[in-house]
Every structure is written in C-alpha cells, then in structure tokens.
Amino acid sequence: MQTFSIEKEFLLDGEPMKIISGAIHYFRMTPNQWEDSLFNLKALGANTVETYIPWNIHEPTEGTFDFSGMKDIESFVKLAQKMGLYVILRPSVYICAEWEFGGLPAWLLKDGMIRLRSTDTIFMEKVANYYHELLPKLRPLQITQGGPVIMMQIENEYGSYGMEKDYLIATKKIVESYGIDVPLFTSDGSWKEVLDAGSLIDEDVFVAGNFGSQSIQNAAVLKEFMAEHNKSWPIMSMEYWDGWFNRWGEDIIKRDPKDLANEVKDMLQLGSINLYMFHGGTNFGFYNGCSARGNTDLPQVTSYDYDALLNESGQPTEKYYLVQQAIKEVCPDVWQAKPRVKQLVNLGSFPIQKSVSFFHTKDDMMTPVYSSYPLTMETISNGYGYLLYDFELKNYHHDNKLKVVEASDRLKIYTDGSHLATQYQETNGNELILNGDNNKETIKMSILIENMGRVNYGYKLNNPTQMKGIRGGVMYDIHFHQGFKHYPLTMSSEQLNAIDFNKQSNPNHPSFYQTTFHLDDIGDTYIDCSNYGKGVIIVNGVNLGRYWNRGPYLSLYCPKEFLHVGENDIIIFETEGKNITNVSFSDSPLYL
Question: Where is the Glycoside hydrolase 35 catalytic domain positioned along the sequence (predicted)?
C-alpha cells in the first residue's frame, strides 16, 4: 500500500514527488480511446492524469444515475493505474470546463432560482444525494486503498463566484464522511482576491492555482498567499492552460508551441503541473458550454480540441514533442517514448434517401404537453435540445404585433409554416408584425427554441436566462396569449425511432434527413458540414453534437466506435432551411 501526503513537497511513500500531469476527460471520448490517450500522456514523461467528474452526465434526471460506457469513471481510473499513472480527481459539483452549466444538472432549475453553490438547503440536499452515489465508487480507488488516486478537489474556482466558507466546509464534511482520506484541494486563479474567497487554507485544504503563463509571477503569488497563512506547501498549477476553447463565429485560438514549451520548463523548475488540456476531446450531444460577455451569451463549439498537445482525434501535435523535450530537460530521469498515432479515414459520400418536416412528424415522435401559458424546457423535459411551441392566434385581418418575452436561447418563429424571424435571447422581445390581410380566421404559429448551452462560468449561473425556452410569455397586440402545445425535442432514441419519413417533406421547415449505407471498413473520421446550415447529426443513435455554418468548425468528429462494419444509419436535424442532399466524410477537420 502506497502513501501520498503534502508537506513542504508532495511525498509519495515519504519521498519527494514532482507531479507531471495532464488533463484527459473520460466523458469527452470513447472508452476505446482512453488507452491511447493515457499511453501518450505517459510517453510524454507524465506520472499522473487528471479528470473532472461532471454531475450532469452521471445524474441526468434526478434520482437516476449512470456510470456506464463513456461515463464509467471507475474503469478509466483503473486503466490509468494499469498503465502506471497516478490520478487526480475533481468530483466537485461544479467543474466549469466549458461544459454545459459547468457540470450542474439542468433539473436543478426545476426548483426555481435556488442559490447554486451555496448552503441553500435544497441545493445541499441534491449535492448529498449525488455524493451518496458517487463517493462510494471513488473511495476504493484512493491510494490509501490500493488505488491510484492521490488527491481530490472539493470546489473549482469558487473564488471566481462566491466566498461562503460554510458551503466549502459543508462540502468537505460530506466528502470526508464517505471515507475520502487522500489530500483535498481547491483550485483558483492566482490572485489574492479569488484565493481568499475560494480556498479553505485554514482548514488544511491544499491550494492550487489555475494559470497558463507567467509561471514565475503566478507561483510567487501562490507562495505568498500560503506564507500569509503559515503554510509552506509545494506550488502546483492545477490547470496549466496550454491552449484555449472556441466559440461559434469566432476565429480559432492558437498558442505558439515554443512559447508553451518555454513556460512549461519554467513551471517545472518551480513546482508541479497539470497540463489543461492534454487531450481535449469532443462535446458530444448537447453538452457544450457557453461563455457570458456582459448580457450576451456566447455558446462554445462542439469540438474541444483546445489546441492541446493531442488534437481532438488524439493525434500528437507539435506542442506534444516540444513539451516532451522541455520535460526531459528539467526532469532528465523521466521515462519517455514515441507517442501512438493513428490514421484517420475518408469513408466517402452517400446520398440522402429520406427527409421529412419536423412540423409534419412531430406528433408521431411525441405526445404534446398542453398548458395555458408556455413552459420551460426544464419543466417538461430533460432541459436539453429543442422545444417547439405550437399555438393559434385569432386573425383580425390587419397587421398586428407579436413579441416573445424572456426566452432563451435561439428562436425560429414561423407563421402558417413560413419562417418569420430568428431571434436570440438578447433580441427576443423585439416586436414582429404579423400580416393578417387574408381570409383565414386563425394564424398558426410555431416557435422552435434551441438551448445552445448554459453558461459554465461566472455570475449567470444564478441568472434566470439559464432556464431555457419561454419564461415570460407571448404577447399578441398588448396582451399575453394563452393556449400552447409543447413538443420537447431531446433527440432520444424513442423520438428518433418514431420519425415517420413517409410524411411530407419541406426543406423550408426544420427537417430530418436520413441515409442508410454500408461500410466494409471503419476508422476515425469527420463528417463534412460545410454545405449545411445549423443542426445536429446522429450516427447510429449517437448525437455527435452541433454544427453551424458560422464556423469556425465546419465538420464534426466521428470516432470509429460510433460506426459499424455493415449497415449504418445517419439522421441529420437541420433548422435553417438548407436542403441536405448527401453525407460526406473527411479524413481531416474542416474550417471556415
């Protein structure tokens, strides 16, 4: 049985240890990718792997837990140990990580605006229920129990959000009550205000910093903060940012590989490091996060390539080799090896065989929920994907005003099946004019709202805009309208299997497109989305995530594990009126 402790240095079996770690998120890649990624981390010269644990994937609906497949944290940790790596776990209920709602489950919003990340009674009850399922799985994985886990995090960047020490202490007590006895830590930015607010240093919880440059200056801030509290712990950057995330409609952010290698060298001379990210992976499904800039939400893209040492598909980049060299210069005794590489493939192009308007098949896919006033996604579904509101207005046979009050995030508004407007939460509430100059007695309205991702960082975690769908109402003339049918489109297997492609097609509507094709061989690949508008792609029942012609990415990564030798089925949901005619693969990502 090994031991790990924190004194003036990290001590493994009583001997000093420099932690050289890299972040690999098990939930952003398929289990078959774990081994190659972990091997390449070990080959870099690392001795440790770090991962977050997102609450929202493990308790997708309240009281229902899932630790299977890509969510099997126990298997990931055991594989890391088998490959000779120690593990740092970050099971804090909030993770940021450019992940939907920072890892918090959408169903928390069903209880109204409870105070998240606080001692709010309702919130802490939910936390306790989750930890009751999670922590017994993690306890035997600790180094004190013969496993590889050397440290665990109790909160993440809390100093960038709150300062309630009672909340941090309550979380610590829950964690320790389940037999977690490895050193606990918090990680915050490296300036005094957030370290003061977000740490439990006086409770002997280790303090780590999150930064990716100016290593000497940031390490000095951490050291001074510790000294003020009579601590002489080692310095560690728990998130040494080697790249950055990307948002729709913006240029891809890149970092100079030589600059990174030089900074890594400086950091290793000062202390320990966790490269964030080592391998970023993909925000499959609807799990991409969202940035907030003022009152504007800026959703992040499906790819979590992060300009990391391994790219989205797991291939070593120039950064990998330069950082590997930097590690060797500072730590000449580390074991290193050539990384594993793989060949991506172009699987060809296949014609679309079927299409149908969502408006025409929606009643085959689900039973609508009726309500006098509009309901939010969290109220009637799992809180992800899309929500269609159908309702009828009396036609007064002249132009009339319509506006949607308080809705998130992206609204596609249709009158009698024709597209009227596209609005965002920053612009909904702008008045629209309905043309009533016709013989019809009613105007049929449809509003399709897409949840583009809840914010993962900052004050908007407790902002009503994170409740998706229509929160206020729909105003016709100057009164609120009543009478709505709700169709929550979550892309569940039950919904997808119920699509009736024999119903009427209309490319001008939000539509489903399908193709079935045969493959003799499979491999990691990309799907070319450059001729599409906006939507999602489902491969053999797996939602690859969102595409959008705003870029910067114009393709979606498809691991070979999602494909079959033999028959394959792809369904595309397109919202922008693009008539999709084929599915084409590529052996490399495509950009705007």
Answer: 9-329
